[in-house]
Amino acid sequence: xxxxxxxxxxxxxxxxxxxxxxxxxxxxxxxxxxxxxxxxxxxxxxxxxxxxxxxxxxxxxxxxxxxxxxxxxxxxxxxxxxxxxxxxxxxxxxxxxxxxxxxxxxxxxxxxxxxxxxxxxxxxxxxxxxxxxxxxxxxxxxxxxxxxxxxxxxxxxxxxxxxxxxxxxxxxxxxxxxxxxxxxxxxxxxxxxxxxxxxxxxxxxxxxxxxxxxxxxxxxxxxxxxxxxxxxxxxxxxxxxxxxxxxxxxxxxxxxxxxxxxxxxxxxxxxxxxxxxxxxxxxxxxxxxxxxxxxxxxxxxxxxxxxxxxxxxxxxxxxxxxxxxxxxxxxxx
Amino acid sequence: xxxxxxxxxxxxxxxxxxxxxxxxxxxxxxxxxxxxxxxxxxxxxxxxxxxxxxxxxxxxxxxxxxxxxxxxxxxxxxxxxxxxxxxxxxxxxxxxxxxxxxxxxxxxxxxxxxxxxxxxxxxxxxxxxxxxxxxxxxxxxxxxxxxxxxxxxxxxxxxxxxxxxxxxxxxxxxxxxxxxxxxxxxxxxxxxxx
Lengths: 333, 194
Prior knowledge:
Chain A is mainly alpha-helical. Chain A has 15 helices and no strands. Chain B is α+β, with helices and mostly antiparallel strands. Chain B is 17% helix and 54% strand. In chain B, a hairpin with a 7-residue loop joins strand 4 and strand 5.
């Protein structure tokens, strides 16, 4: 049963914890080159971990569902690869190859053991499966490669925030499509991105090159999480392909501010403009998702709401009856 | 002569033994699940005040009944989780999602017997019940077993009920909500001899 208060608490806790982790590590590791990368990675681990813990997540090992595989396999592996890549000990070509391999593996890992792979669904031939995996991997590589350089710019924080917005849009859309747990999963990740980015902002403004490296890591983790949640929402839930692709590609609109006229603008203005532009397709998707929810899912909840209102009304009436002066008691007095 | 006799004695013993085994095999009748005259339905509490009823429309299975050695009988049932039907298309769609049956990940619900014991009026069947990717050993009391020949086809039917807690089978505890944790599954199964 959806519990908006619990989701809000988990989201806020994730944001606060990730911000605290970034600030503490930044303080302790001053002068060390890879401080922000480590801070960004640990903020992700602690922020998402605390959020999931507050959401009373059931960790299943070995992972049985797409969502389990995302949290137990995909995100830790991507985090490890990004940490190795950001350490600077591996050549750029190896780094890029590792990322491409990850992008190829992630869709396959998320679908592991499902009807798409096992052949239990007659409509899923091998060629259709390979085509789907191929297109998905290409989409992930494109979004990953396109947003990563933007995070390295002076206004890189807005890229991370734009992915956070896309994650929130993804969570709400997946939830409205009827997959509550899949939608809720996006909230702690989005909050962690917000917390990490806001905590790194002062350092980035002071011109810290390492701060942009930390933000780049946050962006890369955010892109993988966004892609994976949409992928799981589409293949295991009822999220439409058009909504999934629109949400995934929405952060690419951050590139709008790279046109020569806007490029020289104040960083704050660029940041606000990026978030505004990215919000447009997200709001459109949410609008259609809400319409779909009202038509298909809301009738199921109306009965619950009515019953709940009836119970609420009964409780209120009982309370009023008990608190009001009882005529027969007054007469006795 | 002695060697000749011992050879034939051996042949006779082996032949008799194979024949008796053949008889044992033929004692078990094999039946296919008759989808037309069977049903797998369920009910679960709603808000703890009423019951929601539903059924699975796609079920397959088989069982072999050995009247002489009942412990050799076997029962198998496979339910296609995607075929859930609660007379409300939107709810059925919701039940197929990962918060409930997760039919893309766990397409079937299965039962496979491991031990069969005859009891009065039927059989006590112990076996592995797999739902939502989790397997647990359960014991079913299968009532019935009477035979009827209809248009030259021998038919046998059984009925059983079981109560399962969704939380025991890895369903998300947070999604249990207004629909109760416990669900009752009612199986009425008619088999046609192969």
